[in-house]
Amino acid sequence: WNPGILTVGLSILLFMTAKISVFIWAPQFAEQAFGATIQQSGRLLTNIFIGAFCGSLIGTYVVSRVRIEYFLITMLSLGATGLWLTIAASELQSALLAAYLVGASIGATFNGYTAFGLSFVPTPTHKNVAYLLLSGGIGSAIAPWFSSRVVEITGEVHDALLACLAIQGVVLVSVLLLTVYSRRRRRILATA
Question: Whole-model pTM above 0.85?
Answer without folding.
Answer: yes
